[in-house]
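Q: My labmate handed me this sequence with no annotations at all. I'd like to see what the chain might look like in three dimensions before we decide whether it's worth expressing. Could you predict it?
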Amino acid sequence: MNDSQLLRYSRHILLDEIGIEGQQKLLAAHALVIGAGGLGSPAAMYLASAGVGHITLVDNDTVDLTNLQRQIAHTTERVGQSKAASARITLQQINPDIAVTALNERVDDARLAELVAQADVVLDCTDNFATRHAVNRACVALGKPLVSGAVIRFDGQISVFDPRGGAQPCYSCLFPQDQQFEDVACSTMGVFAPLVGVVGAMQAAEALKLLMGVGASLAGRLLMLDGLHMEWTSIAVGRNGDCPVCATKKY
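A: Here is what I predict for the chain of 251 residues:
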C-alpha cells in the first residue's frame, strides 16, 4: 500500500483483527453486487469505502424518482439513467482508487455463472425469488460465498450461504425453489427507507468479513429484523439433505 492508502484505511489497519494484511486482502478482492437499488446502494458504498479493489454492479433498471426515498447511491439528476452506471459514479466519487464495473443487463444462468466465477464474494441485493435462486445455484456450483438480504415494509432479513463450509445450507435449503413464494414489490407494499440501509450495510459487513477471513459469518443463521419494534430474531438454519441444489455438492 502507498502512503495515501495507509492513511485512507488507517482506521481498519488499527484493528488487530484486520491490520495491513486484512486490508491488503480487501484491495485484492472482487465483489459481485447483483442489484443496485435499496440494498445494493449501501452495500456497494461500504464495500467501496472499505477498499474492495474491484466491484461489479449488475442491474438492468433505470433510476426512477420513487427510488430516491431509499436508494442512496442515486441522485435526482440521474433519474432516467442506468442504475448500475449511476451507482458506479457514486462509488468512484467515494473511492477513485478502486475499479468499478457497471453492467446494465438482466443476467441469465450462463451469464451469472461467468460473473460469479470471477468474484470472491457475491451479494444478492435483488427483489425477486427467481433471481435469488439463480444466483444461489451459481454460487453453489462454483463454491462462492453468497450474502443474501431482503427488506419489505418494516421487515428485513439477512443470511450468508457459504458452500465452502460443506455442511452449511444454501438459499434453496431455506426457501425451496420448487415451492411457490409470492414476490412482493416495494411499489405495491411499500418499504421503510432506513431498513434497506441497515440490511445493506450488514451485507457489506458480512462480505468484508468473508473476504478477510475474520470473525464468524451468518452461515447457518437467519437474522430477521422487525423494524417497527426494532427487534432482531436469530434462527438456526440447517442443510436440507434432499436439497436439489446443494445436497450432492462436495468441496
